[in-house]
Specification:
By secondary structure, this protein is an alpha/beta fold. Helices cover about 35% and strands about 25% of the residues.
Length: about 350
């Protein structure tokens, strides 16, 4: 288990560098370049919410084929792609059309992710733009050397036609992602069954925003126990399917925080098989180290004995007497996803245009 003071606490002033004779004057040590990209409508909504919330040390971007929707979201950069094919009116639920739009915008997409150290992709799988575009963005980001984390939501069971598209999208995303975090919209029926539809979807957007914000700021903002960029890289490079745990409660009841987090995974998986965990805890000034470790121990109690666990702790005066834990568990087995589509078929050619070739990372 690792939890330590990382380089983030001294990045603003720079590191001293060593040579054969000892330590030299400090030199600049730049922060990791972090980009959050929303693909399609659902992905764009999540990034728009994150942009309004604000995230230190990260830029936001939204990609869509739908001009009207693109105008409703906020981001540092917006890309409307495939206008010659869709006239800015969306991909109509056709992933093959979304994929072709991505091909036509290849240069713009490549420039967007070029030079980034960490790229978060948010996407709602099952539709046309997100399912068709996100795998290409992941591929370009990975080719540029970025750590790629995709956070993908899957359709409700009633959306039968979209489910197969989502399954294909998962298989196309996986080869170019260091971590693929899959969130099942059906779990909203368990978590918030009686909320109005708009507010229920907002719950998922808020969760995605909080996770990205938590990880990005844990890297970039000095903390009691820092997560540094290589910590994140190490855990997320475990690969496989990942999921998110989230809990929040009184600082006086850390066991309840753990219980809340463990009972609400947003994917139907057995968390006991996790190969690694990235845990971030935030609370007010009264947080004790003992309380923080009780939370970490509770989250990891049933994980594999050789699991790689890295955690960070930040004191945030805004949280006062509450404690919040966000955990990303990686290397999970999700039978419903593993048996999704074997192998993923090529997307149908669009108007005689051959399907795009696949590359492996």
């Amino acid at each position: 288990m690792a939890g330590r003071q990382g380089p983030a606490a001294t990045r603003e002033k720079g590191w001293e560098t060593a040579n054969a004779t000892g330590w030299e004057a400090s030199v600049p040590c730049p922060k990791p370049r972090i980009l959050v990209v929303g693909c399609g409508g659902a992905g764009g909504n999540s990034v728009g919410r994150l942009h309004r919330l604000g995230v230190a040390g990260a830029r936001t971007a939204v990609i869509n084929t739908d001009r009207v929707h693109l105008e409703t979201v906020e981001a540092d950069k917006k890309l409307l792609i495939g206008q010659s094919l869709t006239r800015g009116m969306g991909a109509g639920g056709r992933p093959e059309l979304g994929e072709k739009c991505a091909e036509l915008a290849d240069g713009e997409l490549r420039n967007l992710v070029m030079g980034q150290d960490l790229v978060f992709l948010t996407v709602g799988l099952g539709g046309g733009t997100g399912t068709g575009v996100a795998p290409r963005v992941a591929e370009l980001a990975a080719a540029g050397g970025a750590v790629v984390i995709a956070i993908a939501t899957t359709p409700f069971k009633a959306e039968r036609g979209r489910i197969r598209n989502a399954q294909i999208g998962i298989q196309r995303l996986r080869p170019n992602c260091d971590s693929l975090i899959v969130l099942d919209n059906n779990r909203l029926l368990d978590l918030v069954p009686n909320l109005p539809v708009e507010r229920a979807f907002a719950v998922m957007d808020i969760l995605i925003s909080e996770v990205i914000k938590g990880v990005a700021e844990a890297i970039n903002i000095p903390s009691l126990i820092n997560l540094d960029f290589n910590d994140v890289r190490t855990v997320l490079s475990e690969g496989g399917t990942s999921t998110i745990l989230y809990g929040e409660n009184s600082i006086d009841d850390p066991e309840r925080v753990v219980s809340e987090a463990l009972k609400n995974p947003l994917l139907d998986v057995d968390t006991k098989g996790a190969r690694a965990a990235l845990i971030h805890i935030s609370s007010g000034p009264s947080l004790s180290l003992r309380t923080a470790f009780r939370v970490v121990d509770g989250i990891t109690a049933n994980m594999r004995s050789d699991a790689n666990v890295i955690f960070g702790v930040r004191v945030d005066p805004r949280h006062a007497d509450i404690i919040r834990v966000i955990a990303i568990l990686t290397g999970l087995k999700a039978p419903a996803l593993e048996a999704a589509v074997e192998p993923a078929p090529a997307l149908e050619p669009l108007n005689g245009v051959p399907a795009l070739p696949r590359s492996s990372r």
